[in-house]
Design goal:
Layout lengths: L2 H11 L4 H22 L10 H13 L5 H18 L24 H10 L5 H9 L6
Helix pairs in contact: 1-2, 2-4, 3-4
């Protein structure tokens, strides 16, 4: 049975959604093509090691500049391939991980709002705008 047929069977057995199966299949194909390009021939995952997975994931993060979530999806597909299809334990590996973007909070905490209001110059236009938005009286 072909490898991708085995992937399909494992996905059906585990009740994965068709979209997950399609996504995993694409990542597995990309992984195999990556190593074919390096070795000049097809290599079956049975003959691969954690180093092969690590080099692929590192390439995604460093050369392809994929998002961290994309790299994680590729990792999950490969863990599935080796654990559930090939039945091979890869052990530990550490790839260069894509960096998650720093997210700014969308809401200020009470302390942050207090610091902003304290920093406003008394009587300035910004002070007036802040007072209006908080419904303060101007006595």
């Amino acid at each position: 049975m072909k490898l991708l047929d085995q992937v399909h069977e494992a996905c059906v057995t585990k009740h994965y959604s068709p979209r997950t199966e399609k996504s995993y299949g694409r990542w597995i194909e990309r992984f195999l093509r990556f190593h074919r390009a390096k070795a000049g021939k097809w290599i079956h995952p049975e003959n691969m090691t954690a180093d092969d997975v690590e080099s692929f994931l590192t390439d995604l993060g460093v050369r392809c500049h994929v998002a961290a979530s994309t790299q994680n999806q590729a990792l999950n597909a490969l863990v599935f391939l080796f654990r559930d299809v090939v039945k091979k334990d890869l052990g530990e590996f550490a790839a260069v991980r894509a960096k998650r973007p720093i997210r700014l909070p969308t809401v200020l905490s009470r302390e942050e709002v207090r610091r902003v209001l304290v920093a406003l110059e008394a009587g300035s236009m910004h002070d007036l705008m802040a007072a209006c938005s908080m419904g303060q009286d101007f006595d």
